[in-house]
Amino acid sequence: MRRLLLLAATLIVSCNVASAQSSQPYAGLEHRPIKALSHQQIDDLRAGRGMGLALAAELNGYPGPSHVLELGDRLDLTADQRIQVQRLFDAMKQEAVPLGNKLLEQETELDRLFFTRAVTSESLKAALLAISETQALLRESHLKYHLSTTALLDQSQMQRYAELRGYQRPDSSEGHKHRH
Prior knowledge:
Radius of gyration: 23 Å
Shape: extended
Number of domains: 1
Structural class: mainly alpha
């Protein structure tokens, strides 16, 4: 009987703790410089990192320049391929960094509109349209370089890339079939 009471008390306390935590999922986020973005997201946007924006390409067999460079030795990239992929990576960064900075400015402005209570239906719509346009351009800047990178690799390198990234087992008929 004593064990049953202890178990019941433990369950009640656990449920109360879980309930309190679930009613405050954003506690502490009000102190972030841009409320809608984590510090990691801000750093990634400033550095031109992909942040998963190119997953549609990556997970469907279109490697990006960053990961191809990281795996260059294991992919047996030729010297010419390395140079070309590096050029693509540099061009991607040159596009992505300014777009990331622009997005940060736009998110800061949206945050300011709400913080100062200056937001209106019209200003909200305008801010969101600007943000969505920049997000689309940023995503395109990452995705198009996946297309360009894929064109530089041969079929065996594509297969090896999928294996190294964990998308396909070596010598497996399962997983993605990449045809480019």
